[in-house]
Design brief:
Elements (H helix, E strand, L loop, with lengths): L1 H14 L7 H9 L25 E2 L19 E8 L8 H18 L9 E3 L5 E3 L17 E6 L10 H16 L3 E9 H4 L8 H7 L16
Parallel strand pairs: 1-4, 2-5, 2-6, 3-5
Antiparallel strand pairs: 3-4
Bound molecules: zinc ion.
InterPro entries: Amidase/PGRP_sf (IPR036505), Amidase_domain (IPR002502), PGRP (IPR015510), PGRP_domain_met/bac (IPR006619)
Keywords: Signal
GO biological process, one term: peptidoglycan catabolic process
Length: 227
């Protein structure tokens, strides 16, 4: 049943413009810049953070992540948080969210052909934070911002409904954790993905309205500067 629903999701996302669908080419570009930082063995980044100041973070080992094809070091603290939804199924239990993490990683690596799952961290409606690329690795979730942001994605589609409070609290918690551990500038700017990339609907209309009430959200379009 799970596999069937995954197939349905896969075909849906394959034929509609999804949250991060613009990054097929941009993601590849992002993933192949700065290769002098190449060091796949440094994939696990949680060791460099004081766990006492952080929420429970489900590590890559916990959710049985694949090894990234490659990774590029990100200089921290970063000045931005880019919030996403995955535009895929929601998950409410540890087991389902771990399965979803593996599914999203497979989709991003095999279909999008990125090096790894796109985001820095993901959040489930089980209230847990799931390690994506982690603190110190450049993401593949929003061009230009990939090198200077934490990409946080709530699992689900939040176009017409909001994520539950546990997920919202988890986002707040990972942001505070990032500040405490000097991975994020205390004066950070929060934006929705649609503010970073033209013609996106991410993080969904309902959630986008909600984040406008959150601390540090900044209005307007912050598209990459023209060089
Ligand atoms: Zn997005």
């Amino acid at each position: 049943m799970w596999k069937e629903s995954l197939l349905v999701v896969l075909s849906l996302v394959a034929f509609k413009e999804i949250c991060d669908g613009v990054h097929i080419i941009e993601g590849l570009q992002n993933d192949h810049v700065h290769n002098h930082w190449k060091n796949i063995d440094e994939g696990g980044s949680m060791n460099s953070v004081d766990a006492k100041a952080c929420p429970t973070i489900v590590t890559r080992a916990d959710w049985k992540a694949r090894t990234p094809r490659d990774r590029y070091n990100m200089t921290t603290p970063v000045p931005f948080v880019v919030l996403h939804h995955t535009d895929m199924a929601e998950c409410f239990t540890y087991d389902d969210c771990c399965k979803m993490m593996r599914y999203i990683q497979d989709f991003h690596m095999d279909f999008r052909e990125w090096d790894d799952i796109a985001y820095s961290f993901l959040v489930g409606e089980d209230g847990l934070v799931y390690e994506g690329r982690g603190w110190d690795t450049v993401g593949s979730h929003a061009p230009w911002y990939n090198f200077r942001s934490l990409g946080v994605s709530i699992m689900g589609n939040f176009t017409t409904k909001l994520p539950n409070q546990r997920a919202v609290d988890a986002v707040s918690s990972i942001i505070n954790c990032a500040i405490t551990n000097k991975k994020l500038d205390p004066d950070y700017v929060l934006i929705g993905h649609r503010q970073a990339t033209p013609n996106r609907t991410c993080p969904g209309e309902a959630l986008y309205k909600e984040i406008q009430t959150w601390p540090h959200w900044k209005p307007g379009d912050h598209f990459p500067p023209k060089h």
